[in-house]
Amino acid sequence: MTTVRHVPGPAGGANGVAAKVVSDRAAGEAYVASVCFKHGPPRLLGVELEYTVHYAADPRKPLQAPDLARALGAHAPSTLVPGSPALPLPAGSPLTLEPGGQVEISALPQESLRDLDRVVSADLAYLTDLLARAGFVLGETGIDPYRPPARLLTTPRYATMERRFAPLGPGGITMMCSTAGLQICVDSGESDELPARWAAVHALGPPLLALFANSPQHAGRDTGLASARWQAVLDTEHARTFATPPSDDPPVTWAQRMMDTPLLLVRRQDGPWDAPDGLTFADWVAGRGAAGLLAPPTTDDLDYHLTTMFTPVRPHGYLEVRYLDAQPGDRWLHPVALLTALLARPSTVDEVLALCEPVRDAWERAARDGLRDREIAAVARKVADLGCARLPATGLPPGKIHEISDGVQRLVRAGRG
User: CA 205, CA 208: separation in Å to the nearest integer?
Assistant: First the structure.
């Protein structure tokens, strides 16, 4: 049989070591656990802000790639303009694009929330002005309220994803091309605190998703959902979107899941990147079934496989919290500060776990009903009160703390209506 050669990755894997063939399942699991979970005192914070982009004169007009490329200039990512210098924004944040042309500010990690606020606010203001000069505005919700999904980027990865998700319904293309999320990155913490911290960032999902949900309108219609964005994620492909259950050893649990998750794609020098149907990474390592047509996988392939997961929380050596809708303007800081406060101390983490237990698995209810769900609303109110009380631990100035607390409590009160 002819062996299909996949595209080799960079010389160094996620841990900075040259890529190696994954010899067996145990080696794959050990590698995943080592690169996805780094231990130590929580120290760094990061955030990734996604926004839909619209023509100011007509937000319903389909986005055109040449127009967006001209607007971004030297900051345009190479996925939009091959050969672009892809300069970071002035405060240092890299700028990337999602498949539908959504812009994403990926702030470099900072040692304090005050520093993160300074860096992100500066880069967001710069990007807003840059786009405005070209006749664009940023969206203010977690999903495009005006336009149906349409893929702007033509990379093999996104073309493969579109084909893969199409038979499952509109969720995949909607997630790829119409949604905008707010992703918060926090350190994993000390190894003995990891199980509780891992459980807490998941348990906070349904109440915080409901509290900050703002994506009911999509493509010109009322979806009836509190977060049509998160529902699109849930409708994509269950194997790569369901929340990982709590575990006494999250690195082991995650590593096992990664080996048992079907491949989304296989990078190739020529031809489409479609993966053999149902082939897991463990199958690839063992050479089972259609894996016999592929070259043995390397740690670079495993690194890339990890990027094809769209779970509520995704470990990358830190914990990437992915379940929040994009927020309008400078209100991005509200959920970031609240989550930071709720994770600041082990004792607060324990309180979070107790408060959130009644709705720990209520992901679909949170996306569908948000704070209309009385049980979720009750938990969200308690979580908001606890987080607001702990905001001084974030190191933000008193005026900013008051502003955030007032904004969060307004959302709680609006949910009661």
Answer: 5
Residue 400, classed as helix, strand or coil, is helix
Q: What is the pLDDT of residue 8?
A: 41
pTM, to two decimals: 0.94
Gap between the Cα atoms of 162 and 102, Å rounded:
16
Contact 366, 210 (CB under 8 A): yes
Whether the pLDDT of residue 4 is over 50: the answer is no
Q: Which residues pair with 184 in a beta bridge?
A: 47, 321
Say if CB 292 and CB 303 are below 8 A apart: no
Which residue, 39, 2, 76, 77, is CA-closest to 250? 39
Report the pLDDT averaged over residues 46-62: 98
Strand partners, 86: none
Contact 242, 257 (CB under 8 A): no
Q: What is the mean pLDDT of residues 170-174?
A: 98
Q: Tell me the angle at which helices 346-356 and 333-342 cross, rounded to the nearest 10 degrees.
A: 100
**Count of CA atoms in the C-beta half-sphere (13 A) of 95:** 31
**Residue from 192, 180, 47, 177 nearest 112 by CA:** 47
- DSSP letter for each residue of 215-280: B-EETTEE-S-SBHHHHHHHTT-GGGTSPPPP-SSHHHHHHHHHHHSBPSB--BSSS--BPPTT-B
Buried b (16+ CB within 10 A) or exposed e, 299-321: bbbbbbbbebbbbbbbbebbbbb
Cα–Cα distance for residue pair 285/93, rounded to 1 Å? 36
Query: Is the pLDDT assigned to residue 2 strictly greater than 70?
Result: no
The amino acid present at 145, given as its one-letter code, is P
**Vertex 214, ends 227 and 410: CA angle to 5°?**
130
Query: Helices 205-212 and 194-203, interaxial angle, to 10°?
Result: 40
Tokens of 176: 């790829």
For 362-376, what is the mean pLDDT? 98
- What contacts 136, CB < 8 A, 6 or more positions away? 53, 54, 55, 56, 67, 68, 71
User: How far is residue 293's CA from residue 298's CA, in Å, rounded to a whole number?
Assistant: 15
**Residues in the chain, how many?**
417
| Inter-residue contact 380 to 208 (CB < 8 Å) | yes
